[in-house]
Amino acid sequence: MLHRVQTASLNVAYYRHGAAGGPSIVLLHGFPYAPSSYDDAARALAQEGFDVIIPYLRGYGPTRFRDPAGFRSGEQAALGKDAIDLIGALDLERPIVAGYDWGGRAACVASALRPDLVGGLVTVCGYNIFCPPVTAPLDPRVEHMLWYQYYLHMPRGRVMLEQHRDAFCRYLWEIWSPGWAFSDTQFDAASVAFRNADFVEVVLHSYRHRAGLAPGDPSLLDVAAELERQPSIGVPTMVLHGDRDMAPLAMSLDRSRFTAFWERRVIAGAGHNLPQEAPSAFAAAITDLAAHIG
Fold first, then answer.
1. What pTM does this model have?
2. Pairwise CA distance, residues 245 & 268, whole Å
3. What does the pLDDT look like over 134-150, one tens digit per residue?
4. Is 83 within 8 Å of 113 (Cβ atoms)?
5. Any alpha helices (H) in the chain, and if so which ranges?
6. I need a surface site. Which of 2, 133, 220, 274 has the fewest CB within 10 A?
């Protein structure tokens, strides 16, 4: 069932499954995906007695900005603050936050900035906070992997999102998860979330800001500055990585960024959309982390 809650910046649309009063789990999706990535994992977690919350991120689905003229930021500071604000608005008691791609970044930011609010972290690809702007050339293999970001820096990237967003996003699904034979039904269930009127602006800002091509939200300058210092994460953490993800496995090895319990699992056959490709493994990571936290 779809619910809504108001935070400082957003009217957030979210799904809630499982036991009221059970341990809370917040599942955060990535780009270009949607809460449907978690359908199977959420069902398993609900059956285990967890209270599972799955929001649409800013710019997706029925989630809306409260201010019609507000800054349509996609920067990591905004995504992380959204997660923190959601925890507060729903009065959750130290939930485990979990995510991949943009959602993994939001989960890492929330865990780093507010360990008093977050009980544990499950993050795909590990430490997902970067220090913008990322302007220096990277390893050529990484540059090749990031072609879509450079494409979105250009005016034709805007036109692509405006006119052919489903075809563009579907292609990203294909190349980021080469072993996943997803169905039209699965893609269609997610692509509805891309119809949000703010989708294009939020996506373009996300990739342009991290390259130093667009300013950040002035109201988030303090948060952004703190993230640029690459804060450590002091909550119990489970790191997951699909061995067929387009992101290098080395990205999940940065143990030094985590100061509490840390475990890493490589999921065979999984690509970038790990929760939907390997829902049992994703749910198991959460239940095992919850058991460790006690």
1. 0.97
2. 10
3. 777 878 888 888 999 99
4. no
5. 39-47, 76-89, 102-113, 140-145, 147-152, 155-176, 184-191, 199-210, 221-228, 274-277, 279-293
6. 2
